[in-house]
Design a protein that fits this description.
alpha+beta; eight-stranded mixed sheet; six-stranded mixed sheet; 8 helices; 24% strand
Length: 388
């Protein structure tokens, strides 16, 4: 079987390597270079913490397990397994966290309420009052270093004979004798048996070229659901092994002593067309919040400030499955790309190559988003650190 995967992010390369292991001849094409899209601007929190409804929770739970299996079997250094500590310092956050803990405990998800003393054992440099509203610890949650995961995937792809073509923009889809043909901007024509779209936030635009009107959220104004700030600090001597969420800031390691910062209540001004400078008031606000939650960060500076753009199907849930009107076309799009990448690689390969429908994907077929006018309401309640 000859397959073209469009998109060389964490999803596309996971799918490509899983297919190649089954003996498929795989070509991956990307309009830029591997990992240059959404994969490079993700907070990369591996979790099933706020994933609803139940089918979406189950899918993400399986994704967490797949990450750990792959990391353990390969010695991959892309997965940080220090868990997730969430500190609620205001009543509204505490009430929401208490409800979430009860719901997750009912699902069998590992979460425990901890004292301030225990929290400081988990995060030695944590600054927390002796009597915070509520603290929860999620030991099974992790964070991913996407570029290290991509490095593993690219090495594996090369070993398996996968061809990765960068700077290849798809201009059109044709069908010749029942087989799809991709027309690239440079005039190249790629014939194959199946096409798998893994292009993240570009999914709607790409599929429109095949007359497939899949509903995806797109950026329309600063602060909408598709965008958010991510800041990376200079190296600091703060002891933090896993993820830390407070009522005002999310913090996680970014490697070599650097930290990654996220404060979703500040995202109301996020605009990919106007990214603030690392010395901007926004950056200073993030640093002030960091200094209030972690010791030994007073000298931190923001070395990079990004506006990430999320891949977001119109109902917020994963899309994975064949397109009924174009049986040669299979589409994958999800906001939970990092959490789900190893799992989706395996599940999609089983469906496309083996012809074996996967129950975990049964609720996430593209059909539901193909009707004209399908859109999720854009009006959303204010988000806080810890939200997706």
């Amino acid at each position: 079987m000859q397959i073209v995967v469009i998109g060389a992010g964490v999803i596309g390369l996971s799918v490509a390597t899983a297919l190649a292991r089954r003996g498929a001849r795989v070509t991956v094409v990307d309009q830029r270079v591997p990992g240059a899209g959404t994969s490079s601007t993700s907070y990369a929190w591996v979790n099933a913490n706020k994933k609803e409804p139940q089918a979406y929770y189950e899918l993400n739970l399986a994704g967490m397990a797949a990450h750990r299996r792959l990391a353990e079997s390969t010695g991959g250094g892309w997965l940080g397994t220090g868990g997730h500590l969430e500190v609620a310092t205001d009543p509204a956050h505490a009430a929401e966290l208490e409800q979430r803990m009860a719901r997750l405990t009912g699902h069998g998800y590992t979460v425990e309420e901890v004292t301030a003393e225990r929290a400081r054992q988990l995060v030695p440099d944590l600054l927390v009052s002796p009597d915070p509203e509520l603290i929860a610890y999620f030991p099974s949650e992790a964070h991913c270093y996407p570029q290290l995961y991509l490095a593993h995937l690219l090495t594996t792809a090369e070993e398996l004979g996968v061809q990765v073509v960068s700077g290849a923009q798809v201009k059109a889809f044709d069908v010749d004798g029942g087989r799809p043909v991709l027309r690239l901007a440079d005039g190249t024509a790629l014939g194959c048996d199946r096409v798998i779209s893994c292009v993240g936030r570009w999914t709607g635009k790409l599929l429109a070229q095949a007359d497939v009107p899949l509903a995806m959220e797109t950026f329309t104004h600063p602060g909408d659901a598709t965008v958010g700030y991510l800041a990376v600090t200079s190296p600091v001597p703060a002891a933090l092994r896993g993820l830390l969420t407070t009522s005002r800031l999310n913090v996680r390691p970014d490697g070599a002593g650097r930290l990654q910062l996220q404060a979703l209540d500040l995202d109301r001004t996020a605009d990919p067309r106007a990214v603030p400078d690392p010395g901007s008031p926004l950056a200073e606000e993030l640093l002030d919040r960091l200094r209030s939650v972690l010791r030994h960060t007073r000298a931190a500076t923001v070395s990079e400030l990004r506006v990430g753009q999320r891949a977001l199907p119109a109902d917020g849930l994963t899309v994975a499955g064949p397109v009924p009107a174009q049986p040669w076309l299979y589409v994958v799009a999800t906001h939970s790309g990092v959490t789900l990448a190893p799992l989706l690689g395996d599940l999609v390969a089983k469906e496309v190559h083996d012809g074996a429908a996967q129950e975990l994907l049964a609720e996430f077929r593209p059909d539901r988003l193909l009707a004209p006018g399908v859109r999720r309401a854009r009006t959303q309640p204010p988000r806080r650190p810890g939200d997706q």
